[in-house]
Amino acid sequence: MMNNYYVLNGPNLNRLGKREPGIYGNETLETLEMRLNDLAQKHGMTLTFKQSNHEGDLIDWIHEAENSKGIIINPGAFTHYSYAIRDAIASVDVPVVEVHMSNVHKRESFRHQSVISPVSEGQIVGFGMKSYELALMSFL
Amino acid sequence: MMNNYYVLNGPNLNRLGKREPGIYGNETLETLEMRLNDLAQKHGMTLTFKQSNHEGDLIDWIHEAENSKGIIINPGAFTHYSYAIRDAIASVDVPVVEVHMSNVHKRESFRHQSVISPVSEGQIVGFGMKSYELALMSFL
Amino acid sequence: MMNNYYVLNGPNLNRLGKREPGIYGNETLETLEMRLNDLAQKHGMTLTFKQSNHEGDLIDWIHEAENSKGIIINPGAFTHYSYAIRDAIASVDVPVVEVHMSNVHKRESFRHQSVISPVSEGQIVGFGMKSYELALMSFL
Amino acid sequence: MMNNYYVLNGPNLNRLGKREPGIYGNETLETLEMRLNDLAQKHGMTLTFKQSNHEGDLIDWIHEAENSKGIIINPGAFTHYSYAIRDAIASVDVPVVEVHMSNVHKRESFRHQSVISPVSEGQIVGFGMKSYELALMSFL
Amino acid sequence: MMNNYYVLNGPNLNRLGKREPGIYGNETLETLEMRLNDLAQKHGMTLTFKQSNHEGDLIDWIHEAENSKGIIINPGAFTHYSYAIRDAIASVDVPVVEVHMSNVHKRESFRHQSVISPVSEGQIVGFGMKSYELALMSFL
Amino acid sequence: MMNNYYVLNGPNLNRLGKREPGIYGNETLETLEMRLNDLAQKHGMTLTFKQSNHEGDLIDWIHEAENSKGIIINPGAFTHYSYAIRDAIASVDVPVVEVHMSNVHKRESFRHQSVISPVSEGQIVGFGMKSYELALMSFL
Amino acid sequence: MMNNYYVLNGPNLNRLGKREPGIYGNETLETLEMRLNDLAQKHGMTLTFKQSNHEGDLIDWIHEAENSKGIIINPGAFTHYSYAIRDAIASVDVPVVEVHMSNVHKRESFRHQSVISPVSEGQIVGFGMKSYELALMSFL
Amino acid sequence: MMNNYYVLNGPNLNRLGKREPGIYGNETLETLEMRLNDLAQKHGMTLTFKQSNHEGDLIDWIHEAENSKGIIINPGAFTHYSYAIRDAIASVDVPVVEVHMSNVHKRESFRHQSVISPVSEGQIVGFGMKSYELALMSFL
Amino acid sequence: MMNNYYVLNGPNLNRLGKREPGIYGNETLETLEMRLNDLAQKHGMTLTFKQSNHEGDLIDWIHEAENSKGIIINPGAFTHYSYAIRDAIASVDVPVVEVHMSNVHKRESFRHQSVISPVSEGQIVGFGMKSYELALMSFL
Amino acid sequence: MMNNYYVLNGPNLNRLGKREPGIYGNETLETLEMRLNDLAQKHGMTLTFKQSNHEGDLIDWIHEAENSKGIIINPGAFTHYSYAIRDAIASVDVPVVEVHMSNVHKRESFRHQSVISPVSEGQIVGFGMKSYELALMSFL
Amino acid sequence: MMNNYYVLNGPNLNRLGKREPGIYGNETLETLEMRLNDLAQKHGMTLTFKQSNHEGDLIDWIHEAENSKGIIINPGAFTHYSYAIRDAIASVDVPVVEVHMSNVHKRESFRHQSVISPVSEGQIVGFGMKSYELALMSFL
Amino acid sequence: MMNNYYVLNGPNLNRLGKREPGIYGNETLETLEMRLNDLAQKHGMTLTFKQSNHEGDLIDWIHEAENSKGIIINPGAFTHYSYAIRDAIASVDVPVVEVHMSNVHKRESFRHQSVISPVSEGQIVGFGMKSYELALMSFL
């Protein structure tokens, strides 16, 4: 896969569509995958899509992605304390874009700190599913 | 299971009876399960009993419990930093009672903060195994 | 009174039923007293019921309770700053259970700290009037 | 009393005129009462005037004032730590104006925080006895 | 102008009536000016009314007001960080009253600190447009 | 202008291309304007482009933009302390996207806090000039 | 009473001899009073001895002591938060010596701060009942 | 295995040799294992060598090691937040030595705090792979 | 102008001689300009002298000074919060010396922090008008 | 010397009588020595009197005093940071009384913390030279 | 001395064997010296052994050691505040290993911070006298 | 010596020219002394030049300098914690100028705080050896 990108989703994102729809909307993770695949196809990219509630899985996949062209990651709540994911990102030589669907800065104060941001290339925050699409376009 | 409740135990609680008996007593997790099943039976409840040292397992089980009547959770040390478990609780529409066997406020300062409490219904802290029994009775 | 327990209520709890019913419900302190007396009677306990808006009264009553079997205390707002009540509890050799009707961890940040918890046996928080009943049952 | 207002003064305000005249001036609490009664009379208001060094008294009077038209309160040093008075104010459905004679922001840092302000309607600070008069006029 | 006072309004107050009416009401800055002029006229005062979104303008006007009888200032958001305005006030020998329409202590925590208060005579907070009128009366 | 958007740049962005090229690259503000106009034209948008080193100008322009379809703002260093710009954004009923060219989370700690983020729709951070283009696309 | 001194004891000191004897010893408040009276008599002093668990009582007695020669005060737990007692001391023109029986600096961190110390003449800490005797001798 | 020791490595240490060689050198985890086995053999020790990116695995292995002679652990980034690993260590009655290859005190501030250190016997920090060898020798 | 230097003065320094003479002395900004011009002339330097109460003006002038030999700046109160001026200084390749007339470390705590110091060459603090003269001599 | 006590004075106390007489009075260290010797003689005690501006000297003397009956120490400014003196005190099995001439709690905030207090028996603060005399009497 | 190393011990370590044996054991500094000399001899190293309670002595010796092969330093309590020793270490081009006999992370919180660690090569903490031996072996 | 000044240098400044030349340059303390003596001679001043790594020496010399015309002090790392040197300066009635060769505000955060600045006349920071020369000129 010459032009492959990883899209990694962290804890509770498997519940998209069911979880706090006032914050996260009604569309599911499957919808997100379809929307992103459509966009990727238009630009000759392929996507590897993963979700887990286990921090260790995300670390394993980041290592696995070291030969991809880039990683889009929504670390969910791990954003705020997983220095292990941070180290995983720093250990691979691949550009990583951090995305969040909701504007975390409008929410509880613990969500204002990201331990991931200092090792990611950039952050796209607050645009719902469009956050991922903009992240994909950032690689063009 | 019409009237089913989940009882979730976090890291190191599999070592009950062996771990720091001065703090946690000599009875094991199996004893706890028996005591709670006895009490549940009296009130026509059934219980699903789980323990794991993996944060992700607890998140998976909270999602799984979304059709139960309630969750009793002792998140162990995850109490103090697992915003991912917090988000899992917020993502299900089921009442959650947080329990601790020891009085955490008599111990190290890091144990005084619970990131779980703001999303649980209530907390029962400091009564040993009786903490779980009182939690069960809170659902009556 | 062989098997007597004190139930102490702190400031503004005389306004139960009138005060912020969205938080505290519509039932009054009298209702609480009746419900607890019913429960106590079933288990052969007697109760001494007190309420005051004066910190000094609560201290006096804690001293007075030193020959009782136990104290259930809802210190109201004194929870957050009355080191004098804390010292009173430490000065008597009687088990003390701290209760709160609302889940204080969902409210303003000053309510998250209890100066009483390190000297109480345990805490029961967030179950409305049932918090007191569970506290009573904790003595069984 | 159709148009009655409470004027509550907290600890050490009974010593007005004697206490630190460089800060509080030479006039006494009696003078204040006369000046306020004069002003009230002009606008068809009546006043209930109270002072105590006991936190519990202030709480009792705030409850008592629940059928008045408004409360002017100078909580004295209780301003800075009495969450019990704060809860008392929140428990009555009456507008409360917080007043201070001196400009507390020019003094020791502990005086810069008021735990009362978030539950009062407004604050009038720094105008000596005129602070009370302006508070009274705020009700017009 | 023998008896002239300055009324200075800081950033975004030109949007009164349009800006967050739930907080600031529906009346405009023009209405405020009329209401204050009416009151001033009754007491033989004249008013110089200014508004700017530029911190430097407010500083210039405070200097300009050094020969007036007093300044009423609503520094808007500059309240919370403009040490330059604070120094401007300290540099003129004229009494300054700080006003806020909303009760800032009920809002975001950054609004709880005023760097202006230690150099103003007093503060009147939370009474809407009446805050300015009470400030004017404080000069009588 | 039916479909007009504002692009506002804060202090020191007039020096793009000259200022710290290791961080901000060699292209100038004029290049940015051309790139954005090209993109806008493709999607039937028009742009109003402004830059100032004066906080007050940015506030004025935000007010002016209240009838536009959206605002893209790079507040420069004002990001970290201008509560006045924050209030300006809150005072207009227009979606605002906050952009930064560099990944501010890799730089000095004062750059990690944005007082603007809680009132903007979303943030796009770290993609150089592409940050603005992604912001524009977020409005599609 | 030409040469009279007040000895004021705060909350829980009525339990001396019963309360935490490991910290406070076995002697009672009555013993303390006798020991101090003996010492006072030798030096031609008389003593007024008071104890209360009510903050307001201590304030009232400090006011009452304004014509005495000096005050010895052990404010108990009020030491750490009673700004009202602090203000009472500042309001009388009498030297005040603050005493503590235990070395508060060896105990919980909240006991390390005294809000009373900045307004007392001096502090004598850690000598058991001898703390009071040394305080009395400090007046010679 | 009479004289067996566990050597546990946490997240991202599987990438030794590939990960940030400027910090961690070019040798791999396999090399480390060989070097340690050589040293162990000389002293009649055997080693159980484990690595995982999953916090729960490390906890499981610490429990498993309760009958070994000692544990050498490099918790990687879990060092800084895994109170669950801390509790696991406290729950076994086996000496634990904490090692770090890099001098964490020369790096980002979050790496300066170890939640593991208070429950480990000692720490050896900053000697690259030699840190493990010294740890092994500490058991002699 | 081959050997030209900028001397920039921030807010309220136009009031030198009038403003708090106990702190800043009786001489005016004009005197300062004359004293500095005298000194500059002796050493073959020319000076461009500017003062403004507007942060944006200072930023504009710093940009303008990019072809000068050096900048002497007294940012007044902007010292403590203007990250925009800090960025302006970082954006020009000219040595900048920060001066203060008063010893800011003897004054209010907010004056102890300078956001400018990390990007200036050096600081000269506390020598009144001589601070500027020493700054000029630092360029020799 | 059967009944010998050490009196240790730290930095700058050799300047008593010359140093800030408003705070420390006009009497010299020699006067202090004489006053204390007089008092000691009355009670059959002997005194070893030492002063140094060198932290190491004080540590040496504390070690030297390990066979004395007690130590009176005024650590001067070392009070606030010398953990080495603290350790020296903890290393000898002799009662140590900490004295200060001025009421440190009325002065700069750095003087409010004593790193010595947790290892001394008690503290006597604020009585000028009488602080030492009371300390001596505390040993009776 | 071709292969010479310095072993520097800070304040109160001359009291090893006498000082708090529960923490530091019963062996003296002389024993330590013998044990280390034995080990050094085996590896063809020579040792220069120094101890002082004076910070300045330690600084002098670090300078003196600039031509040695390495320094082992136990700075005692200076660990926590002596930035002067830190600067001394940074000023010599010799590897420095920091050792502590006790596990400082199990003790008072002030002992958790080392100002020395960021300039030392590594730290060995908690192994009693063996800490020094491991440090010596780290140089092999 | 009618016109004598002290130049005091603190710890590690004896290593000027050898210590971190990237920060401190290549010139030695002897060069500094010559440069300053040259300058002093031109203005009819004499200099007493001292350096020590011992805090106590600096204190002794400050006392000794009480009859000089002024003190120039570079306290080295003592700048950041030596309250004893601060007190020494406050105890003599001589103007003191604090100098630093490097711009401490560009370095580690602990170097940003000076406990000396509040008692010195002024500070000159960041000009290498010229800092001392400017300090000398400040006395003219």
How is this fold's topology laid out?
The structure is a homododecamer of 140-residue chains.
Chain A (H helix, E strand, L loop, with lengths): L3 E6 L11 H4 L4 H14 L3 E6 L3 H10 L5 E5 L8 H9 L4 E5 L21 E4 L4 H9 L2
Parallel strand pairs in A: 1-2, 1-3, 3-4, 4-5
- At the fold tier of CATH, the topology name of chain A is Rossmann fold
Poorly predicted runs of chain A are none
Oligomer: homododecamer
Head-to-tail CA distance between termini of chain A: 17 Å
Question: What's the total count of β strands of chain A?
Answer: 5
- The CATH class assignment of chain A is Alpha Beta
Could you say what the CATH architecture of chain A is? 3-Layer(aba) Sandwich
Order of helices and strands of chain A: EHHEHEHEEH
Helix content of chain A: 25-40%
Largest binding interface between chains? A-F, 19 and 19 residues
Give a quick account of the main beta sheet of chain A: strands, pairing sense, barrel closure: 5 strands, parallel
Structural notes for this entry:
The structure is a homododecamer of 140-residue chains. Chain A is α/β, with parallel strands linked by helices and 140 residues long. Chain A has a single domain, classed as Rossmann fold. Chain A is 33% helix and 19% strand. Chain A contains five helices and five strands. A five-stranded parallel sheet of chain A has the order 2-1-3-4-5, sandwiched between helices. The first copy, chain A, is globular, with a radius of gyration of 14 Å. Chain A starts with a strand and ends with a helix. At the A-B interface, helix 3 of A face helix 3 and helix 4 of B. Strand 5 (122-125) of chain A pairs antiparallel with strand 5 (122-125) of chain F, so a sheet runs across the interface.
